[in-house]
Amino acid sequence: MQYVTYQRKFAIRHALISALFIIAGFVLIGDVIFGENSPLQTFYFSSAAFLSFWFIGRLFVWNIIRAFGSNVLFGFDESGIKTESGEHLPWREIQTIQLVAPGINKWIQPTPSYYDLKMHNGQRHKIYTYSLLKHQENDILKMLRKTWNERKSPSKKQMK
Fold first, then answer.
1. Which of 4, 9, 46, 48 is most exposed, with the fewest beta carbons within 10 Å of its own?
2. In this structure, which long-range contacts are made by residues 18-22, counting pairs with CB atoms below 8 Å and at least 24 apart in sequence?
3. Computed over its alpha carbons, how large is the radius of gyration of the chain?
4. In this predicted model, what pLDDT tens digit does every residue of 136-146 receive, in sequence order?
5. Is the pLDDT of residue 153 over 90?
6. How far is residue 118's CA from residue 140's CA, in Å, rounded to a whole number?
7. What is the pTM of this model?
8. Are 148 and 95 in contact (CB under 8 A)?
9. Taking the CB of residue 135, how many other CB atoms lie within 10 A of it?
């Protein structure tokens, strides 16, 4: 079994940077509550604090969990892919493998990068990388596709 792992220092670094924005949001909330501000400043500080929680809060949670949890995202071998939750996805049931870059969802919140596995039965499985693999994401995608192409249908040797 080959395991796809990330360096924990990336998760810690991302969590610390996110924590700075969260702390700044709390400082702004404190200034709104205890400071003597004009209504315009109160609105400005409140909205800035809300936006720091809205945009950065999810990133902070993802990275703090990854900083203290296991650094294994998933594993794969000749039989298929084993997800972090323990689910086994055989190669022959996978129709396509794609890498989806991080972006923004319909609620204008960040979404992490992930590998999108479309199965023959129409289901989709997402294996999140949380942008912690950095430049390795495309290399791992190539390895996954290579292994998938070799294993998706039984070869003549395996059929005999």
1. 9
2. 18/56, 18/59, 18/60, 18/63, 19/60, 21/52, 21/55, 21/56, 21/60, 22/52, 22/53, 22/56, 22/57, 22/60
3. 21
4. 999 999 999 99
5. no
6. 17
7. 0.83
8. no
9. 6
